[in-house]
Amino acid sequence: MNDMVKMVVVLTVLSSVAGGVLAAVNKGTASQIEAQQLTFVKGPAIMSILEGSTNNPIEDRFKIADGDAETSFFVGVFDGKATTIAFEEFGKGFGGDIGVMVGVNVNEDKLVGVAVTVHTETPGLGANAKDKPDLVSQFKGLSVKESVSVTKDGGQINAISGATITSRAVCVAVDKALKSYQKIKPQLQQEIQQFGK
Amino acid sequence: MPKTLVQEFTKGLWEELPPFRLVLGLCPVLGVTTSMENGLGMGIATTFVLFGSNFLVSLLRSIIPQKVRIACFIIIIASFVTIVELLMQAYTYPLYLKLGVFIPLIVVNCIVLGRAEAFAYKNKVLYSMADGLGIGIGYTLALGALGAVRELLGNGSVTVWGDLSYNLSSAFPSFQPFSFMVQAPGAFICLGLMLCFINAIGD
Q1: Between the CA of residue B191 and those of A62, A167, B146, what are the distances in Å?
Q2: Which residues are A74's β-sheet partners?
Q3: Dist CA B152 CA B154 (whole Å)
Q4: Suppose B160 and one of A17, A117, B164, B184 were both cysteines; which one would form an S-S bond, judging by CB atoms 3.0 to 4.6 Å apart?
Q5: How many CB atoms lie within 10 A of CB A110?
C-alpha cells in the first residue's frame, strides 16, 4: 500500500513539475520563435508575393481575430497605396499541414500570388509545391470569387504529377483563404488605410 | 573495479562509442547525416538531452520507485527533448527546419533511455554527468564523421559549420559527386564501411 502511494505521488509530482517547466520555457521562447518564423519561413514567401512593394511588409502587419484563431495580415504598399495584403492559411497535405501564403489585391479582388511557407511533403514530389513555381504560379490573377480546385476535381489548377494530395491541399488552403477574405473584406479595407501614405 | 570520473567520460569517446561500438541509436545516424552540419546539430541536441536526463535521473534515483522508473525516465527525457526543440526553434531555426521530426524523436532514442536505465539509475550524480557528456560527445563526433563522409562524397564539398567549408574539387578537379551517398541506401553502406573500419582498428 505504502509503495502504491509513493508511486502515485512521485509520478504526479514529476509530471506537474515537468509541465510547469515546459510551460515556462514555451512562454519564454514564444516571441523569439515567432520572430524566427517571420524571417526564415514567412518572410521569403511574403517577399515573393509582395515583390516591388515600397514598404517593409513584415513590419507593416496587423492581426484580425476570427473566432479563436488570430491571423496576421501583411500589407504591401505599391505606388504609395496600400493595395495588397498577404496572409497565411493551411491545408492538410500528404505529410502534415501545408502553410500557404496568399496575396490578394484588395482593390481589384484578385489573387496576386501564392507561396508555400511550411510543409513536410516528400522531397522531389510534394516538396516541388515549394521548390518549383509550376503549381503556385497558376493561382496568379484568379478572382477571389472563384472556388479553387485541381482539374481532377473539376477545377482550374493543374496538379503536380505524382503529388495530387499536395496540390489539393494547396488548393484547399487558397480556397479557405479566399472565403475568409471575402468574409472580412470590409474590416481589411479599413485596417490597411493606415499604411498607405 | 570502479572506474574514475575521467574513465567514465572517455569511455563514450571510443570504448563505448554509441553508434559504432554499442550499435545503438541508429535511426538518427542513418536519417540526419546527409550533411556534416545536420549530424553535428543532431549530436549536440542529443548530448544536451543525455546530460540533462542522466543528471536528473541520477539525482532522483533514491526517490523514483523501482516499478515506475521507466515512466519517470520518459517524463524527464521528454521534457528535455521538448526544451531542446523549443530552444532550437528560437535560436537555430534553419537547423531546426532541416532536422525536422528527428528532434522530437530523440525521446525514443535508445541511447538516452539506455543510459538512464543502465547507468544513471545506479550511479552517483557526478559519474552520471560524466557518462552522459562522454556518450553524447562520442555520439556527436560519430554523427559528424558519418555526415562529413557522406556529404563529401555525395556533394563534392563539406560544410563544417557556418561558412567554414571544404570543396573537394579544389584538390581533385575531375571529381564527380556521387549523389547515391546522400540518399538512404548510401547511409547504410557508409555506416557499414565505417563499422568495418572501426572494428578493424579496434581489435
Answers
A1: 50, 36, 7
A2: A61, A86
A3: 6
A4: B164
A5: 16
Quote the ipTM score. 0.80
What is the side-by-side strand order in the sheet with A97-105?
A: A61-66, A69-78, A81-92, A97-105, A110-116
CA atoms A139, A141, A143, A144: torsion sign: positive
- State the amino acid at position B174 in one-letter form: S
- Name the DSSP letter for residue A39: I
Pairing of strands B157-161, B164-167: antiparallel
Partners of A157 in the β-ladder = A150
For an interface test with A, the pick among B62, B74, B75 (most A C-beta atoms closer than 10 Å) comes out as: B75
Length of chain A: 197
Report the candidate in A190, A194, A154, A177 with the shortest Cα–Cα distance to residue A49. A177
Task: Provide φ and ψ at B85, rounded to 5°.
Answer: -60, -45
Q: Identify the segments of chain A with pLDDT beneath 50.
A: none
Parse chain A into domains and list their residue ranges. 45-192
Long-range pairs for A66-69 at CB < 8 Å and ≥24 separation? A66/A180, A66/A183, A66/A184
Dump the DSSP string for A69-137.
EEEEEEEEEETTEEEEEEEEEEEE-SSSEEEEEEEEETTTTEEEEEEE----PPTTTTTHHHHSSTTGG
Q: What's the mean per-residue pLDDT of chain A? A: 85
Express each pLDDT in A23-74 by its tens digit.
Answer: 999 999 998 988 888 888 788 888 888 887 778 777 787 888 777 777 888 8
Residue type at A161 in one-letter notation: S
Residue among B67, B79, B87 whose CB faces A29 most closely: B87
Q: Write the pLDDT tens digit of every residue in B69-112.
A: 999 999 999 999 999 999 999 998 888 888 888 899 999 888 99
Instruction: Using CB atoms, pick whichever of A10, A22, A36 lies closest to residue B89.
Output: A36
Residue of chain A whose alpha carbon sits nearest to that of B71 = A11
Q: Cα(A71)–Cα(A73) distance, rounded to whole angstroms?
A: 6
Which residues, 6 or more positions from A191, have their beta carbon under 8 angstroms from its beta carbon? Answer: A62, A64, A73
Write out the three cell numbers for B25.
Answer: 541509436
